[in-house]
Amino acid sequence: MRFDTVIRNGTVVTAMDTCVGDVGINGDKVSAIGAQLPVENAGRVIEAAGHLVIPGGIDVHTHLDMPFGGTTSADDFQTGTIAAAFGGTTTLIDFAIQYKGQTLRQAFDTWMKKAHDKAVADYAFHCIITDLGSAQLEEMAQLIREGVTSFKLFMAYPGVFMLDDATIFRAMSQAAKYDGLICMHAENGGAIDVIVQKALAEGKRAPKYHALTRPTTAEAEATSDRGLPAYAETCPQYLYLSLENMDAPGFEGAKYVFTPPLREKWHQEKLWQGLAKDTLQVVSTDHCPFCFKEQKELGKDDFTKIPNGGPGIEHRLSLIYTGGVHGKRFSPNRFVEVVSTAPAKLFGLYPRKGTIAVGSDADLVIFDPNEEQVISVKTHHMRVDYSMFEGIQIKGVPKTVFSRGRAVIEAGKFVGRPGAGQFVRRQTYSVV
Ligand code: URP
Ligand code: ZN
Fold first, then answer.
1. Quick check: CB of 259 below 6 Å from ligand 1?
2. CA 175–ligand 1 middle distance (angstroms)
3. Whose Cα sits closest to atom 9 in ligand 1?
4. Is 56 near ligand 1, meaning CB less than 6 Å away?
């Protein structure tokens, strides 16, 4: 058998198995996994001894090129997918926003255009619903057929994204009928708004009041359920940062203004344990970058005007490997599960993506589990002027990254092509 590429002698890690061996690639697919695959006629042979070979990361929560809070998130589909690829993420699911009065199709078309010529790696969309008449209800079924199989609903951001209970109920019923999945931003936005107005009236305007006006009870109330199947994500910022970061001098706390907000430090270990024990299934990033200069500064005198969001698309795999595997909280297999396999299963990408198997897309990361780096704005690739994780030491770094059989990152350089990323039509979800 002849291979386009053979990755040799790596430790191949999936959510289920670990083995030392070779991975053969033909075209955009994995075509063989085994010991000592023939390399004589291979187009290319890459030595991966001492490295892990893992499925490309899947980030199911990003906001690229998103108008929000009077400005637009700083990474577009080119800079955002390049930064993602540097971090070992080869597929992302972004959000197509339906603004009031629009059809869902308009939202989908708008975001497809944003991505088409720019993405260097594969992408899909959830559709954010803000307005659900009978025509849009019908469109939900049509979008599911076209591979947009999940919808995002917000219980927060009154006047922007927040939906009333009747609309939430209608959307959930329709999703259930067609096997769609609902992603819920679960905070009691109405109650939070009352607390926010009170804080402003008392002259509390600094960034940290963004967090202090969104109490845990407003999240707990919105997430309680009747024991029905519900899955949950967390993000690296909630595992590494805390309310203390918001006490940074001057206006620096604005760097950590995102929603849901940071909590007290003791929450971090609870979240790590949630990942270890599978009460949390997925690590995404909620990447929504706004530069400190001119963007975050829109809220210099009023925390409610600080655009909500933080940059994180690039370091998800390294941060989770560092704290999860080197931190002895879970195995490399569980690491692969939370950053790739479970997201793929939940969002209808598995087994095309999220694993290494014959016939799967050759989205592969050669990962050095022992290389150490310090995260910094000076070296990151996101188009944003600060890092939420500045100075944090990581151990475990993607070295070579393939998207559907093509190298996109090699020897610390981007070697892909804008526009090479493809829209992925998703199936409906499978139980994780
Ligand atoms: O603060 C955040 N997360 N901004 C992006 C929009 C959202 O809430 O997901
Ligand atoms: Zn988000």
1. yes
2. 23
3. 286
4. no
Q: Is 40 exposed, middle or buried (0-12, 13-18, 19+ CB in 10 A)?
A: exposed
Q: Is the pTM of this model over 0.85?
A: yes
- CB distance 285 to ligand 1 below 6 Å: no
Distance 89 CA to ligand 2 centre (A): 17
| pLDDT digit string, tens, across residues 58-117 | 999 999 999 999 999 999 999 999 999 999 999 999 999 999 999 999 999 999 999 999
Helix extents (H) in 225-370? 236-240, 266-277, 316-320, 332-336, 342-346
Closest residue by Cα to atom 7, ligand 1, is 259
416 lines ligand 1 (CB under 6 A): no
Task: Give the tens place of pLDDT for each residue, 207-253.
Answer: 999 999 999 999 998 888 888 889 999 999 999 999 999 999 999 99
| Antiparallel, parallel or unpaired: β 44-47 and 364-374 | unpaired
User: What separation in angstroms does the CA of 107 have from each of 59, 65, 118, 211, 315?
Assistant: 20, 13, 18, 30, 29
The residue whose CA has the least distance to atom 2 of ligand 1 is 309
pLDDT tens track for 415-432: 999 999 999 999 998 666
